[in-house]
Structure formats: C-alpha cells, structure tokens
Fold these 3 entries.
Entry 1:
Amino acid sequence: MSEHEHKSTGEVHRELHSHLPPEPGLRVKAMESLLIEKGMLDPDTVDAWVETYTDKIGPKCGARIVARAWADADFKARLLENATEVVKDLDEAGWAVAHLKVIENTPGIHNLVVCTLCSCYPHAILGPPPNWYKMAAYRSRAVRDPRGVLKEFGVDLPETIDLRVWDSTSELRYLVLPERPAGTQDWNEERLASIVTRNSMIGTDRDLSSNGGSA
Amino acid sequence: MDGIHDLGGRQGFGHVDVDEEEVPFHSDWEARAFAIVRAMSRAPDWTLDKFRFTREQIDPADYLIRPYYDQWIQCYAAMMAGSGIASIEELASGHARSGQADLGEPRGPDSVIAEKEKAASFDRPYEGNLKFEVGDRVSASTHGHGGHTRLPSYARGRSGSVSFVRGAFIFPDDSARGIERAEPLYTVAFRADDLWPGEGCTHIVHLDLWESYLEPA
C-alpha cells in the first residue's frame, strides 16, 4: 500500500501545499496530465463537462422552472410536493437533482439558502454557485445575520415578513420559488423566465421587476 | 471535526462580495478544475462525504484563502495520495512514475449525458422505527467528534422542532469512513433567538439533521 498510509490527511495536505505548483492554473494542469497518464481521465470528457456547464446548465434552467410554476398552478403544486419527480419529467437534460426541495416565497415569507459546512447548491439547475456563496462571509452570516446579508444584496426585508433560512446540511437541495411580480398576468413563460434572477432562486434577491422582460 | 469549515455564526468575515460578475466560471482553470473532477475515475471508497472530510482537513489558513476549485484539486490529490494511486512527487510533477491506476477505462464524453440524466440518490430503504415525528421538540447533541459530521457547531445543545421527516439517508459520519448505513433524516426548525440569544434575531433556521444527532427535548 501507499507510503502515505500512515500519514494523516492533514499532513498530506501540508506536503501537497509545499510541493505542488503555487499557481492554481499550474496545479490544475499538473493534475490533468497526471490523471491522463494514470488512465483515469479522458480529456474529451473534460471538454464536454466544460461545455455543458458553460453553455447548457445554469440559472436559465431554474428560471424556466420558476416561470412554469407561475404560469401553471397544477405544475406549481406538484413542484412544491415533489420537485425531484417533476424536474425529472422535464424534457431538458441536466435537471437531474436527486433530492430537490422547492420552497415558496409569499407576501409574508422569505426564504434564504446557505450551506454553512461546505457549499451545497443545486448545481444541476443553477449551474456552479457564485463565489460569494462559497466564501466565509456569506456562510458565516447567512444563518446569524440574514437580514444584514440581505441588505447588502439590496433587499431591505421588513420585520413583518417571516425569514426562513435553510442550511443545506444534507443531500437535500433547496431552490427558492420567488413571488411572481404584479403586472405580468399576460406574459408567456419565456418572458416570465427572463426576469427570474439567479439570486432570487437562492433567496438573496426578492422583488423581481415587471419592467421589461423579453419574449 | 471542530474545523475551520464549520462557519455558521462565526464573526469577523466582513461583507459579502455582492458585485461579483455573474458568470459560471471566473477563469479557464476554474472551468477545467470543475470539469476534471466531474470526469475523472474514482476509487470505490471516494464517497462525497470522504471528499468533504478531506476538504475539512486542509490547513485552516489555506482553507480560508485558497480558491474553491483549487481546493477541489488539492482534495483529489490528497485522496489519490491517501489511496496509494499517486505519490506526492507524481502529483507535484504532473507525470506518472509508477504504473496506471487500476480503475478501469476512463469515462468517455457520453458519460456527461448519462450523469446529467441520472443524479446519485442518497436515500435508502429503512426497516427501523422513526424516533420522531413532525412537531416533536428535539435537542441537538451537545458534542461533536473528530471525524466528519453534518451537525454544525452552532446548533449543538440547542432545541428546535421537527418540521419535516425526510426518510432515511446515508449517514455522513459513517460514509466518510467508508461505511454505508442509512439513518432517518429530519428537517428541524430552530428559532435564531435560541441559537444566538439576546441579539434580537427573529428568523428561523432550518437544518437537516440525522436521527443520532438528536434527542427528545
């Protein structure tokens, strides 16, 4: 077995820290070439994942789900009841999230999602999380000072609105269903989807604008 | 473990960078690192929880400043070293000096479609009785342990009420050690005023907690 078997993971980390190239780009290159030589990686598969997460999977997928929920009451009821099954049935590939929970904002309730222990996030629906979602400031404060965090995002939440924070400590993935803005009754799903922001599905945005929107 | 990763409720980290540009990746190496991790072969015991525990053991100062996807690469490097797949020297040079890893053929581009359509499930059948039901008052364990756990320190010893019974899920504390065992999972609502008394908090914090983290309150 490995010469490192007796070493703690912490020790291995410290050795890697002192021996690997300092620049992230070089470390990634070294890892890719080693994995290819070890027979553990096909570079074409890496290209395919980059393309998928650059062009296909991202907040627009989530926005289409939100827009459909706004436009179709039956879809919304099923989504809130069992989002995993509903999303599985959508014809867009890339929406597979095994344990998805959709939580609904209402005039009296606001929801905010965080992962204080790592960075759990519904990747397959929203794409890679923003950096701030993964950084200490958000992770530490979202549970303790969520109104302060929201203010920084420009959301001044009145005390009369109940604030519910969801710390993603398990494999359940939370997606916020924002409120449909007034003045959008006649809009089709495509136009509705165009005003749904990424942050509104995390909960760091609340009042979506009915100004504009593109069909 | 009582590590630097357990950030909920810690103070002194300043403002959130709300002006960050909204793009999937901020540099080419980030995209590459993300995709390498998705595409690479894995040893059978590399569970998600083992990965998380590996990340928790990054040097604390490094944990706070090293870019996120760079930490992913560092964790897989540490797991490769720990599993005897590659030496530190190989990981540093990017070239294999010993033989290939015996993990089968690398995954081809078609695996992207297959993985997009079929996400990994973490729930499991469970024969035992559920200890709690919706509405029950529960207290979170007062202590942690040196391994991987998903009970954040800010909830330890605090009481809340069960708001959802989620079914049985793979227990992370064991999964990080290579043991797959399912346990009931509950979403528990804590009043923030109980978590941080005297600060005027009015919100609710929901946590997903496994049964053995909890006792009747």
Entry 2:
Amino acid sequence: MSLLAQDRRSRPVGSGSRLDAAATYAILTVVSAVLAAPFLFMVSIALSSDATVQKAAFTLIPREFHVENFVRVMTSDAQMARWILNSLIIVAFACVGQTFVSAMVAFAFARLRAPGRGLLFGILLATMMVPIEVTIIPQFILFRHLGWIDTLLPLVVPSLFGSAYNIFLMRQFTARIPRELDEAAQVDGLGYFGLLVRIILPLMKPVLVAVGVFSFAWAWGWFFGPLIYLNTESKFPLALGVQFLSGTTTNAQTPPYNLVMVGALFLTVPMLLVYFFSQKYIYQVNLGAGSAGIR
Amino acid sequence: MGEGVDVRVRSVAPMVEKRPTAKPWWTQRRREALWFYIMASPWIAGFLLFMGGPLVASLYLSFTDYDLLTPPEWVGLDNYVRMFTDDPRFWKVLRNTTVYTLLVVPITTVLSVWLAALLHKPLKGMRVFRTIVYVPALVPIVASAMLFSWVLAPDAGLLNRTLALVGIDGPAWLLDETWVIPGLVMMSVWGVGTGVVLLLAGMQGIPPELLEAATIDGANPRQRFFQITLPMLSPVILFNVIMGLIGTFQVFSQVYILTGGGPNDASMMLVPYIFEEAFRNFRMGYASALSWLLFLIIMTCTAIVFKTSSRWVFYESEVRR
C-alpha cells in the first residue's frame, strides 16, 4: 500500500492512475449525455411540423427542420414578440432597481453609522427567511386596492425598493473595501453620495454584475408573480405566455408543442448568453460565498 | 485586569473633555446618520410596504374568513384547527411535500458532491463537462417544465422510449399516482449543477499543501477525499442543504405546470395548495394560515439543520484560533 503511494508521489496530486482518468471520462460522458439529451429533444421538438406534433412522433435527433416555427411564434400563431417585450420591461426594472438601489442601501449598511442600524440590519437578515407565500396574499390585496391587477406595476414597482438578499450580498462585499478610501474621499471634499458613486460603485463591479445577472435570471423566468397578477394575454411575459400556449389544463386539442418549445428555447438562450458573458464575475462572487459558506 | 481598565479610562478622558468645545448641533455624526437613513430609505419603505405590513396583515388574515368580497370575519383559531382536524387534503399535501423534499435534497446533495469531485480532477476537457453539468441549472423553470412534459410523457416520452430500448416498460410517470413524485424529483435533479458550481469554488479554496501532505503520509485518493476534501467542503454543503431545503419545500411552478397537483392530489404540495386556496377558491384566510404553517416548517427544518451542523460542519478558522 505505502509502496504504491510512493510510486504515485511524483505525479501531480489528484491525477491518479490512467485507469482512474479513463473511469472519470467514462462516467462524465454518460452523465453529460443524460443531462444534455433533454436539450437536444427540446430543439428537435421546436423544429417539428404540426403533423408530427399531432402524432407526438418526436425524435431525439432532429429529422425535420421547420425553421419557420421561429417566425410563426412572432406573427400568426402566438404573440411571442409582445411577450418578450413585456419580459424585457420586467427585467429592466429588476436589473436597474435591484442592482443600484440595493447597492446604495448596502453602502449605507456597510459604511454609515447611525442609531438603529444594527437593529435594521437584523430585521433585514430576518426577512430573508420569510417565504414569499406569507406576504403574497396581503400584497395581492394591496395591489388590488390600488387597481394594479392585470398591469405590469405589481411586477416592476417592488423591484425599485431593493431586496434583502442582494443588499446582504453587496454589504458583505462593500465591507471588504478598505476604509482608507472613505477618508481620502472626505479629505477631497466628496460627500457620502459622491463617495458611493465615484469610489465604491466602481470597486463593486463584480458583485454589481453578479446581482444584475441574478436579477435578470429571476425576472426573466419569473412565473409565480405574473401568474397571480395578470389575466390579459397581451400583458403576459414570455414565461407565462409559453405556459399559456401549452394550455396543459385543457384536453380538447393538442397544444402546438413545437411552438411551445420555440418559446422554451427563447426562454433558455438569453440565460446562457448572459451567463457566459458574466461568468468571470459570478465566479468571483461564488468564490466568496463558496469559501465562506454560511457563517 | 485592573491595569487594563485604568488605561482605558485615562485614554477616553481627554476626548470627553474636548467634546463640548467643538459642539455645533449639526455634528458630523448626525450628518452621517441622516445620510444612512436617506440611503437606506428605499429598503425601509419597501420593508414596511411589502414585508412588515403584509406580515402583520397575513397573520391577522389567518385568524379570519376572507373571500375578497365581504370584509374579513374573525374566526379565531378555526383555520389552524381545521387544517389539522378537518382537511384530509392537507395531510396528503404535507406528506407529498415532505416525501418530495426528502428525496430531492439528499439525492442532489450526494450527486453534486460526487460530480464536483469528478469535475475537479486536473484532466483535459474538464471545462466542457463543467459547462454541460451547469447549463441545465440555467434553464428557466417554465422551459424545463415544458421539456420534462415530453421527457416524462407515457409513450412518446424520451425516458420511456429509452427504457424500452433495454426492455423496460416504463410507467406513465406524471399520470401515475405512484410515479408522479419520482418524476418531479428527476426534473429537480436535472438542475444539480447549481450546487456543483459552489462546491467547485469551495474545492479551489482547499490548500493544495493539505492534500500533498496527506499523500506523502500514504493516504489513498479515497482517504484524501473523505478525510480532507469533504470536511473542508462541509460549510458549502451546509449552505447547499439549507438553500435546497428552503427551495424544495416551496416547490410550485413545476407542479402547477406539469400536474396541477394530480393525479388525484398525488403530487399536490404546500405552495400549489396555498395558491389554489387563495387565488382559485379565494379562501384568503385559510391560505394565510397555511402559509404561516409553511413558514414555521421551514424555520424549524433550518434550525434543526443548523443545530446538528456543529457535529458535521468543519470550520477551518475555528481550528486556527
């Protein structure tokens, strides 16, 4: 046993034997195939003809290529362009609101001393544990009184008030920025707002990008809120529209699953793009969360 | 001890004396506090409007009957009593949610640690595998639900056609009372990548010297994994387990979209049930009571995991101290 271990000492740690590497590749190939197969199936269904949908004769490897499905959803058979626009409105409010408002609040919690700050921060942490289901009913009643049901307002306005999770994440990040910078800024005559905008925000770039991406992901795929507040088809965001198109609750006729899958692809692709362009920053923030865990 | 106190008193004294001399009402300290409240005001307002206020209202509503049309009617503890004594659906819902959570959280935890260990190996092409493992976690829930309605379809489904290749006659999954929850579990496990990413980041943080030292001491790869990597990762695993518990207990979209809670309530879970009571049957009072129960369950589970975590979570900094 110890002899074997000595033999291996010259190799880099963790590389193991050639057999080990082969086994790793084999396992990962199988796992990847299992995880990737549903994607291929999604593309294949999206490219199917209506006749194939009727017969449910889908294949894993695409056999027909009805690219016009991607145009049909925009023009004749669905209002997907409208749904995407609605989604973008919700996303824009979420990204701008969540990112910049949360950053400002986080800065206040990390840097400015005030009586009651500790108590407020405790409350902020406690609210992170409250499931949205507890507050959604009174919120619904509130928005109903305001006459906001079946408008996008209940879906965008709350974003402008920041969110506890993002504020917490950003506060932790801001707290690590050296305080000497604050003093230097004050010597230069910058006020607190100037300090935030000129000095702190540029240094917060990784966490700003990360929160922006999380907000994008959340708002782009958000289903529960739109489902509760919206009734009119033309006001739906894409996620709700796709579900509406699939009409899983009615059994009268086969829903246009090829078009539904086009919608599913439209939902998925922006997520992949945003992720790949922001990977670097997310990784930095993950590294912080990963090495700290929950403390 | 006495010396320390002495020093402190002496050092503070001059500052206290100085203060009255520079004493405009508008001190630097007050200015800072004012700016804190200005900058924190969006969150404070949002908290009062969308969190604090609704929490109080929700608690009040849970003691009433309210259908949105007539004013809420105080019924005391009736909603809570009814839940436990007079609502057979509630018990089924609670059972389903528990079974689902107890399947999803352990399976994804073990699988994500195993995958992270494989993906961390310094072999060529790992980037590609890491990407493939993570990508399903990026798919919005509505899209993956649409996809899984065809993966899990009885005859035309991807899964059953694959099983047929090896001679297994697969069940009707989402249409079968026994197999509907395992079907939903599979969909959740598809998104295992979320946890893997954090674990991989955690693995990067393990000092290589630790593993090297163990190798020199004659530890085999298995021992290195269980004696070093796993303990070092345990804080991340704790984070994943808690986030997993909270998220899984609140499962909604895939149930609502794929099964609507059926067949015969076999996949009805707490949040879809709350949704149905509140926004389909307009029983706002009962739904509020259910949501408070959900809150209590989540708090209890999280507290239990935290309490037991001191036995299995290892914090490096505590050893160094």
Entry 3:
Amino acid sequence: MHQTFTIEAENIAKRYNRQTLFQNLDFSIETGRSLAITGPNGSGKTTLLEIIATLRRPSAGSVRYLVNGIEIEKREILNLVGFQSPRSNPYSELSGLENIQFIGSDVDDTVIDDLLYRFGLYEHRNKQVKFYSSGMKQRLKLLLTILFRPPIIILDEPGMNLDSAGRSILFSYLESIRESRIILIATNEVSEADWCTVRINLE
Amino acid sequence: MVMFSFAVIATLAISLSIGGIPLSPIVQSVLFWIIMFFCGMSGLAHVFVREEEQDTSLFLRIHSQPETVYLSKVIFNILVFFLLQMAITPLYIFLLQVEIRMISAFIMIVIAGGLSISTTVTILAAIIAKAGGKSSLFTVISFPLVLPILWIAISATRATLEVRGRFELNNLYFLLAFSGVMIALSYILFEYIWLDE
C-alpha cells in the first residue's frame, strides 16, 4: 500500500548559550517533494537536519512525522530516515562490506551487491575503510544512507568529496526515487539546491 | 590490553615491593580493589570515548536505537571486565600469597564487585564521552558512585580472607542490587544522554 509521509516543522529554533542559530522556522514537506537547505557556513544547516532527524533537540518548536496523516512516535522515526552527514563516519577498521553488514544484516546480499556496483565500490568492498579515498568514503556513506530504502532521505553536503561521476551516480539514483521519497539536502552547491522543489535559506 | 597491562604491572610491582612478606587481609583487599577500580576506569570508558574520538558516534546514533547501543556496550564491558578478573585474580592470589578462607564467598564478591564497577563505569563513560577534560571530569563524577562499591567490596573481601571473618550476605546483595539499579536506570536514561543537545 502506498504511504504518504509528511514532515511538519513548527517554530523551530536553536540557541547555544546566548547565540541564536535560527528561529521561527516553519515548513511542511510530503512524499514526492524535496527540500534544499542553504545558507552560509555556520548558519545551522547541519544542526537543522539533525533536529529534523531527531538526533538533536531543538531549543524551541517541534518536528512531527506523519504517515498517511497519522503522527508516528519519535522512536519509530529513525527507522524511516536515511541520514548522511560529514560528521558521521563508518568504522575505519572494518571493510566497506563489513560496515554494510554491521547495520544491514537483514538486507539481501543481492541488494547489497547491486548497490556496491551502482556506487562503484564493488571492487573495494573487502578493503578496510581507512584505506578508502575521501570520495570512496563519501560513496560508502551515501550507500549506507539508502541501504534500507528509507522513505525519508536526509543528506548533508552529499556532493562533498565526490567527483563528477560520483555526483552523477548519486543524483541519477535520487532522480529515480524522488517521486516516492521525501528528500532533504543541505548544500552550498547551486545545482544541488536547484534540483530540489523547495528551498529554505538560513541567514 | 591497557587494563590487563595495568593490572599485571601493578600486581607485579606490589609483589616485588613486599618481597614475599604476606600482607594483612585488609591490605590485600584494599590493593585488590584499587587495582580493579583503576583497571575499570582506564579501560572500560573506551567503549564510548573512542566512538567520539573516531567520529563514529553519530554513525551509531543514526543506525541503532539508543537502547540497543547501551545494552551492547554494557554487556561488552561486563564480559571484558569479567575476563580481566578471571585472568588477574589468580595472579594476584599467587603473587601476594593470599589465603582465602571462604572461597565461594570470595568468588561471589569478586564477580558482584566487578559487575558493579563495569555497569557504573559504562554509563559514566557515556556521560563524559562528549565532554572536554574527560579525565578530571570522569574522576569527579565517578567518586560518589564508585565509593560505596569499593567500600562494600573491600569490606566483604576482607571477611573472606580473615581467619575469623564474618561474611555478610547483605554486602553481596548490595552489590548485586546496585548493579541492577544502575543497569535499569541507565537503560531508561541513556536515550537522553545519547542525544545531542
């Protein structure tokens, strides 16, 4: 059965000591739409994404997740969200494949192999992540984000360290699934922001 | 490895220093639990501190439920500390010529005390993992929690080593209950510690 997911953010604010990062943020986004969050360095793009993904608490306001109009419990949200961040790194002592198996023990091997091929990591799957280039690590992080085919995909600077081939792989995949997902991207790249249907700019 | 090295070196150093002269039961108990305490403090905190240092904690937050993370870390620490105790305790007994009068009670207290230390240090490590100045903070916040554990464990261990020692089961119950309460509270509160502010 087709499910429609909605994220509703109401009056979101984040303050650290006396400094206000952002405030009075409201938006609503549903399946089939994509949101670009732009702004200068230090404007709070990463913080906002982490608040939306329930990995960080807002200073004010709330974020609600709805499935077919019914609000779901906060505990269930992480099961629905694929989150990629520069601050999140796989285990460097494990191989790419071992990192995938660590979080995706239930995922079919054929799905894993398909994703490894798609992201150009199949030949490097048994190599320890500490020997990956920065571009390969980024590809692995993106692969881990979409491994469970989450209905909500949150990407923080997804193009960072990716070459043109890597960006092409990423956005061709996102294009193929955009109608059935909510996609949120924090970015300073104009092309990535333009790809999304809605934009929020943090000053 | 760090924990084991510390325990072996400390035990050997004490053994060589006393030069074969047997120590009193109270001194043997105190030294034993001081070694165990510092092993725990130096090694068990790594389960969370390393995640922060290697920038894998957010990766873990994203892909695992908080309760799963806590349970896996505490079970790991309990097992590691138990293995450490199994390795070091016989060495300590041999090198310091410890005479155990009540073997069953001694074993139970060592296990219960180890359980209390490992469960307490695990949750404290989660609290200080994100803080700067981890060492000093760890010492300060661990003091009120670890002190009763050491006090009871030392007292109970002493009773098992003395010729006319009176071993009180209440001490064992206290250590087990302490561990149980620590695990239960940590399980409930861990989500709030784990989440970023």
